[in-house]
From TrEMBL:
One of the GO BP terms on file: positive regulation of canonical NF-kappaB signal transduction
Positions with biased composition (Low complexity): 13-49
UniProt-recorded name of the protein: TIRAP protein
One GO cellular component term noted in the UniProt record for this chain: plasma membrane
Chain spans, region Disordered: 9-49
Family matches, as PROSITE patterns: TIR (PS50104)
Pfam families the UniProt entry points to: TIR_2
UniProt gene name: Tirap
Residue ranges occupied by any TIR domain in the UniProt entry: 70-199
GO MF term list: Toll-like receptor 2 binding; Toll-like receptor 4 binding
PANTHER family tied to this protein: TIRAP, TOLL_INTERLEUKIN-1 RECEPTOR DOMAIN-CONTAINING ADAPTER PROTEIN
Organism: Copsychus sechellarum
Length: 215
């Protein structure tokens, strides 16, 4: 009877083997998972070693560039109080290697034409519009009018409207432009470069989109 009871309580060899195999399986990675891990680490290292080629520069001055579809690259919207600063900005932009074409109202408006006509034509015939927002700009109804014309021409913030704040608190920033980032003019030279880079970026994107459309 005693040996019979011991026989009944003795674990079966198959159960012991199955316990060993399950313990072994849970503590050691399978060969397939090791292979996958090795494969993915190889892929990862291969991916990290790939260097992306830089985007090729776009020639905005090419003869077939859509830049020439409009008369001006930049229209400067400003008050008469800020003429000297605007003349400096225009001189800077026109003196760049790209020779940006700027519309300056006192210089380029046709004598004898209606102010409304000249302002609307300047907006429609320019790729970008720099809004020099100063206390004088906020007081000038013609500046407001030209700003609204620009927003009607391109209501989405696509880089064409470039607000530049000078001597104006953020709380006085025109509500119509709240969805557009602005440049704050603290250092004149730095702000001029920012304006130049923004215009350049838009013209390059314009040329790049035109090229894609032709493919």
């Amino acid at each position: 009877a005693g040996w019979f009871r011991r026989l009944l309580h003795k674990p079966k060899p198959s159960s012991v083997e199955s316990l060993k195999s399950s313990h072994s399986a849970s503590s050691l990675p399978s060969s397939s998972s090791s292979a996958k891990s090795s494969s993915s680490s190889g892929t990862s290292s291969a991916t990290s070693s790939i260097s992306l080629s830089p985007v090729s520069a776009v020639d905005i001055s090419a003869s077939d560039s859509p830049r020439w579809d409009k008369s001006y690259d930049v229209c400067i919207c400003h008050s008469e109080e800020d003429v000297e600063l605007v003349e400096e900005l225009v001189s800077y932009l026109e003196g760049q290697p790209e020779s940006f074409r700027c519309f300056l109202q006192l210089r380029d408006a046709v004598a004898g034409s209606a102010v409304v006509t000249e302002l609307c034509d300047a907006v429609q015939n320019s790729h970008c519009w720099v809004m020099l927002i100063t206390p004088g700009f906020l007081r000038d109804p013609w500046c407001r009018y030209q700003m609204h014309q620009a927003l009607a021409e391109a209501p989405m913030a696509n880089g064409r409207t470039i607000p530049v704040l000078k001597d104006v608190d953020r709380k006085d920033y025109p509500r119509e432009l709240w969805n557009i980032y602005y440049i704050y003019m603290a250092l004149k030279e730095k702000s001029f470069r920012q304006i130049r880079d923004t215009v350049m970026r838009y013209l390059q994107e314009l040329c790049r989109s035109s090229t894609k459309g032709m493919e």
